[in-house]
Amino acid sequence: MIIIKQDAAGQEVWRYSGELMHQGEKVSIVHAHFGREDLPFYGILFKRGDLFVEAFYHDKWYNILEIYDRDDGQLKGWYCNLSRPPRITGESITFQDLALDVLLVKDGEVQVLDEDEYLAQRLDPTEKRMVEAALQEVLQILAEPGFRVRVGSKGDGSCVCSSE
User: Rounded to an integer, what distance in angstroms lies between the CA atom of residue 69 and that of residue 93?
Assistant: First the structure.
């Protein structure tokens, strides 16, 4: 599976490969490995080979990435892209990133990132309302104790909370 990240104007900014782990009615879950050089990022060190469990919700204005360390498999945190709902085909997942992001590190600190870049975009008022609603939804989801990106027990692709 190829994941294609585009900017708000539809221009490709990044492309990488992942393994489709689940294709449900509501969400597609992909396992991908960080393919760039090690990168310090707001208190998390992304390392080449870190595992990203990526949830692309078919009708949501965000995706959620759960990040695991390549060396010890420990959870590092979550990264969320606020984006238009993805386009999913048999070969690819394409999403248009709208610049606003949320980072939740393992200790519980939540950071909303790139607000200035988001505000500088020329989104129509309807899209801005959708992004702002999605931001509130993401913040609520990430506040749930034990949140994990997993396929629900009914196979519906819902996110379930666990204490693992």
Answer: 24
Q: 155 burial class (0-12, 13-18, 19+ CB within 10 angstroms)?
A: exposed
Residue-wise pLDDT for 87-107, tens only, equals 999 999 999 999 999 998 877
Contact 93, 28 (CB under 8 A): yes
Determine the pLDDT at residue 156: 45
CATH number at residue 153: 2.40.380.10
Domain count, the chain: 1
Per-residue buried b or exposed e for 107-123, using 16+ beta carbons within 10 Å of the residue's own CB: eeeeeebbeeebeeeeb
Tens digit of each residue's pLDDT (9 = 90 or more) over 126-161: 999 999 999 999 998 888 777 766 544 344 444 443
- Look at the block and give the residue holding tokens 């008022």: 125
Task: Please give the pLDDT value at position 32.
Answer: 96
Among residues 95, 138, 94, the alpha carbon closest in space to that of 113 is found at 138
